[in-house]
Amino acid sequence: DGISSIAHLLDSVVLRVSVWLVAFVAGLGNVAVLIGRFLFAEPNEVHSFYIKNLSLADLLMSVYLFVIAAYDVLFRGEYILHEAKWRHSWQCNVAGFLSTLSSESSVLILTIITIDRYTSILYPLSLKRRTIASASAAMGSVWSLALLLSALPLLDIGYYGDEFYGNNGVCLPLQIHDPFGQD
């Protein structure tokens, strides 16, 4: 799959180090943002709420990266012996679900933040203010849609096949079977 080899889940040393590094930095950074946003009051409550949600979404990617990094260590030197079982395991499905949930929710939250900032710039003197209730409704919709899109492949629906998340060693829903194109 271009990422794994017979011996290792993460074949490249650079990739292994990068996964651990990004997992730690993303984890610590997003935990710090969440703690900071909860401890220190922000004058723009709605914007702070959006940032908390974005931080939570990005924290999920850190969890995904830790899962992949941990299984890389577990399978080090003998990945081929565990490859089929790993790719069809519930752990791989959960990892794929987390990566998709994180990605989908991050993009959708950034879209909501962009729309919010755009309308604030376009109508700066508008009497209609954003409320925490409308922000909560927007985030509820975002998380519901992201959960739905991420969970559908886990259901026994023929459309997604039996290895949507287990199509490769890092459990990402990459449906590329021939990375070099057609012969």
Automatic annotation (TrEMBL):
InterPro entries: GPCR_Rhodpsn, GPCR_Rhodpsn_7TM. GO terms for biological process: adenylate cyclase-activating G protein-coupled receptor signaling pathway; hormone-mediated signaling pathway. It is found in: Membrane. Pfam families: 7tm_1. PROSITE patterns: G_PROTEIN_RECEP_F1_1 (PS00237), G_PROTEIN_RECEP_F1_2 (PS50262). The chain crosses the membrane at residues 20-41, 53-74, 94-115, 135-155. Keywords: G-protein coupled receptor, Leucine-rich repeat, Membrane, Receptor, Repeat, Transducer, Transmembrane, Transmembrane helix. One of its GO terms (cellular component) is plasma membrane. Residues 29-183 form the G-protein coupled receptors family 1 profile domain. GO terms for molecular function: G protein-coupled peptide receptor activity. Its main location: membrane. Belongs to the G-protein coupled receptor 1 family. This is G-protein coupled receptors family 1 profile domain-containing protein. It comes from Parasteatoda tepidariorum (Common house spider).
